[in-house]
Amino acid sequence: MEILHFLGLENANIPAQLMNAIWLGSLYSLFALGYAIVFSVLGILNLSHSAIFMWGAYFGLAASCGTSVYDGKCVELNHALWTAIPAAIIGGGILAVVIDRIAFYPLRKRNAPRLSQLISSIGVAIILVNLAQLRFTAERKGFPIADVPNTPINVPNGLDIEQPLDVARLALALVFQESGVSISPIQILVIIVAILLMVGLSYVVARTRLGKAMRTVAFNARVGNLLGINTELIYMIAFFISGALAGSAGILFALARNPAVDPFMGDSLALKGLTVIVLGGLGSIRGAVVGGFLIALIEVYINTATKYGYLDQAFVFMLFFFILLVRPQGILGQPIEDRA
Amino acid sequence: MNKFLKVLVSCWLIAVVMLPLSALAQDGGEDAPQIGFWDECANPENLEGEISVGAVFSQVGIAAPYGATQLNGAKLAEQQINESGYLGAATFVLADEDGGSERETAIAAMTKLVDETGVVAVIGPTLSSQAFAADPVAAEQGIPVMGVSNTANGITSMSEADDVNQFIFRNSLPEADVIPNTIAVSVAVLGIQKVAIIYGDDDDFTYSGYTVFVDSLDENGVEILSEDTFQKGETDFSVALTNIIAEEPDAIVVSALINDAVQIVIQSRQLGYNGPIIGGNGFNSPALMVDAGDASEGVLVGAAWNIVSQAPLNVSFVEAYTEAYGAAPDQFAAQAYTGTWLMATAIRCADSTSSDLIRDELASIEGFDSPLGPFSFDVDRNPVHIPVVQIVDGGKFEVFTDAYADYFAE
Amino acid sequence: MLAIQNLEVRYGAIIALRGISFAVEQGQVVTLIGANGAGKSTTLNTISGLVKARMGSIQFQGQAINTWGADRIAQHGLIQVPEGRQIIATMTVQENLEMGAYPRAGGWLGWRGESSDNIQADIEDVFQRFPRLRERRRQKAGSLSGGEQQMLALGRALVAQPKLMMLDEPSMGLAPVLVNEVFAIIKDLKAEGKTILLVEQNARKALDVADYAYVLERGQIAKSAPAFDLRDDAEVIEAYLG
What we know:
heterotrimer; B: about 400 residues; alpha/beta; Rossmann fold; seven-stranded mixed β-sheet; about 15% strand; elongated; C: about 240 residues; six-stranded mixed β-sheet; 10 strands; globular
């Protein structure tokens, strides 16, 4: 109790806040992974990542709501809700590949400096946000509230003890309620999807031929070429995976925080994702995950201890400076000499 | 003969004086009471021809949705004024000019009305920012101008010259007047003792709403347990709300724009909070019920006007408006309707088209019964009327009364 | 096997190769010698497809390959061991060798690729040849010494089952003992019947091991003759062996 007082947490609902940190951390990590993939393979920051995140949400919305979402709010689902998720993942992936072809490939061909590629991606982000404004207006949109399972898991009425599923729900609900934690099915889905994608990606990068080819190209594209690797294809795949991650983060966020889809929904994540990967180690998959959860934890802690929503950002950036000073490569990044 | 003459005179008197009176009595007997200073000011004798009053409402741009219902409300008033013969022999003409949604377009419309159309007074423009830019155009020439939707601070004292300010009026309650009433009524009905506040600290509107909330809470002796802040573009409030709920407040007070308001309401309900949520004017939107759904039940919001108010003049206004336009009026329509009647009243009482006299009569209006309730201007030409407190109940805004004392008790 | 005709390469205004022609026959070791900046590496990189020629033709096993991408050329068994080894420092020795067999394994999807047992057998052959690599197979390649890295680079190329190996300055930056070791390996490869195009600054060693030699000077072939003859050529001795 002494220590809680010292940390300013004596009144906090710690289990609930830990759950908040896990859910936010999953979201940040999922988003930052996409940044990290492209950075590791191409050595460039794709700052249009947050715009892909936003478009992913619109792709998902359009997939299950149909064209009615162009002109107004989505009042009725045209297709099942789950169709939104593959639509966002595939749409986000394809959009990222298109962005690479338009904004990065021509510069890469000419060996343009990385700075111009960075600026190019900022330009793409602005254009994508404006296009979304033009197509969907700035009005915030979402799925029909009744269709999204984002009410918290509570001990439900009329449970049938014969049904194993109901027993599982009851157990889950009791655990959550006893600890004062409130979480919705969608949030659990976000956490599960994030963990699966993180584990899956780590496996792909570490163990598969694709992952090894990506690491080779990341180390040196010319060497990859001489080894018979089609580097442009690898770039395309890297962009697709990155966009798919952004799209999945976008749609999962849109579902969990329904209604949350507007052209600016990616703005606050853009900078956060950048902080996450710099903190975790540029281009490191595990770094993105560790960084994501770390930042979520810091945010939750500062917010809980100080009550000021803006202080957590300041604190994150203080940590950011500190890490850059003592470990410029990030927490899990390799030392720069090794990468060269 | 004398007797006969007396009877004759009496009959004549009865015929001339009493019959119209009884006709009037019959007219008003069934219907709701008539709006207007019919008795306070005598029937005008000097007015004739067409009297033009300008209307600068936004018909295009971002403010167009508001401007459209404003124009509807004003036109309904124009029609009633003329049908009832409120201005005697004269016809009240609403000279409407599209004010767009920009400062420049409002200035252009105002200039045209004052210089070309020759209006005696102006109603509008729609946006506060437009009012700051365009009101001086009329006021500097001694033409009274009345905002019917401007809620920003300082509208009626915008000019350095006080004789210019004297011509600037508004009938739209600023937020600083709505919030204290919301707090006072909520505290009285629900017995609130301690609250937690969450507000956007990077926006003028939400920040000034927050300061008014704090002052009102102090005045009512309510303890503020904590103050949390958020910034534009944030969509996750679960961390702050978890902290707030852990403090077990009697109510959560929120100063936020509608998108953030929706998220805060949804997320507090998701985190298991079922108590009252008191919102600022940012909550005053149908989007609250549409986007937040069931989560919005039990949200308290102050407003200048509520459609379900059972005041007789409001009932008749809502009926007439719905009949004329096939849709229910909103607050903007009600304020524009009332504003147009106020302007006509000033003209009737002045019994003149002199803008100076009209201004003086406008400034002295007191206790004018309207859809907004009994209405007066204070010395600074700001509106004085009792705002309503609304509660979301059954998916719509209802008037929050003592009947709701046990609503949250469970 | 490899025939170069009239190859011209420019980097902007700089002419790096001024129309060179030469050939490598099956089972031959051919060396290109010359001073720094003569165009040796440019020649290899052009053959590999990393640099595009302005004019001329490159024929490999009767196919014109000058329009192909570098990856496709490598997939056809024309394997370069680049200057400075260029092993993948962030990967283990085993993974580096596996990457050598990337085209054999069928690319990233593994379509119509060889079985990993086949490939692992070839990797075992490399370990046989370079036992030190076996000891370090789980180590990051970046932690190897210079000599070990060169062996890894050669091993990686061998796993690709090259039809023609192009070695770019394999002895560069190595201690004299290691230089001898590298040339001993090249001799072994020659004895096994491998076809090799060798670019070297160490002309004496290169001429010792090669069948035929070309001398490059400022982007042009100044001399060409059987390697044995050039070892006694006065000009060559003065310029490169002195």
